[in-house]
From TrEMBL:
Alphabetical list of InterPro entries matching this protein: Aldolase_TIM, Elp3/MiaA/NifB-like_rSAM, LIAS_N, Lipoyl_synth, rSAM, rSAM_sf
Cofactor annotation: [4Fe-4S] cluster
Cofactor remark: Binds 2 [4Fe-4S] clusters per subunit. One cluster is coordinated with 3 cysteines and an exchangeable S-adenosyl-L-methionine.
Gene3D superfamilies linked to this entry: Aldolase class I
Main location group: mitochondrion
Listed NCBIfam families: lipA, PRK05481.1, PRK12928.1
EC number(s) from the headed UniProt entry: 2.8.1.8
UniProt-annotated binding residues for [4Fe-4S] cluster 2: C120, C124, C127
Coiled coil: none
Taxonomic source organism: Clytia hemisphaerica
Keyword Metal-binding: yes
Protein's name in the database: Lipoyl synthase, mitochondrial
Alphabetical keyword list: 4Fe-4S, Iron, Iron-sulfur, Metal-binding, Mitochondrion, S-adenosyl-L-methionine, Transferase
Domain Radical SAM core residue range list: 103-324
Amino acid sequence: MLQRLLVFPKHSILRHGTCTFMYSTKTGSHKKSLKDGPDLHEFIENEDLVRQPRGKRLRLPPWLKTEIPSGENYAKLKKTLRSLNLATVCEEAKCPNIGECWGGKEGTATATIMILGDTCTRGCRFCSVKTARRPPPPDPNEPVNTAKAIASWNLNYIVITSVDRDDLPDGGAGHFAEVVKQVKFHNPDLLVECLTPDFAGNFDHVSQVAQSGLDVFAHNIETVESLTWFVRDPRATYKQSMNVLKHVKDAHPNILTKSSIMVGFGETNEEVIKTMEDLRNAGVDCLTIGQYMQPTKGHAKVKEFVHPSRFEEWEEIGNKLGFAYTASGPLVRSSYKAGEFFIENLLKNRKN
């Protein structure tokens, strides 16, 4: 009896000191699955992926470990933001590059300003920004305060992004446009990139921001089409995001467009390449690809940590597809310092 219990522990039930056994009729099919499945050599051979055991969080690989944020520029930037009651996506999204960008190790310190408050009306599974159906109304002083903060930093390039505001009639497009106008008024030579929501696919609202005086219009596709339903809020669809990007390029061909893909949700290599092709067909000029990092236990788990060599392959593919700029690496984010430097030069060359 003990021997049989050890052989079939999952099919035994202990009742009042006796063992009742339930035998599986699928033993043959299980054996066939094991025989036809991958062997140990195949698992060892594929070094590109660090996969997640079921029910466990993956340990951070060495290529994703960064220094703790510090330095004079970091402290100055944080103090300015607090005094003007401004939020940044760098903090809200727990970006791993915050020390590099805010610390200003190379050149001027940079940051991505987040406007329209710090509370989003959507709940994407990758994002750590607070959510609510009806966030507080936008701060009417935010456009001027944002312009003042940016002017005090003496920057050449700034990224402005926002939460989704489905509670507002125009999705916050008017407020977003006013921020850009104020920033440009205080510093006409400053290059402005706007990382926008999809404005529920309303092209009038999209164009309102696109015509505000910005230099780069960015909207992130975030993930491959098959995983959009799982990763993003149901109101954000793959097709809608592609249409927003295509509309901006069709209606405003002189504006640089930009998008970003996160990997590590379980997508395939083929799906990533297909998404890159779709973005290029939508007229997107610049692309960033980076590793998804789970911000808290309540968010979508990382299914795999992609090896840096795979990111290098995607960067090569991006260049072949015709993107003006492709940044692909484990720590690359949509608002990436090195990318901003390249795009800054690209825009200056266009103007000259």
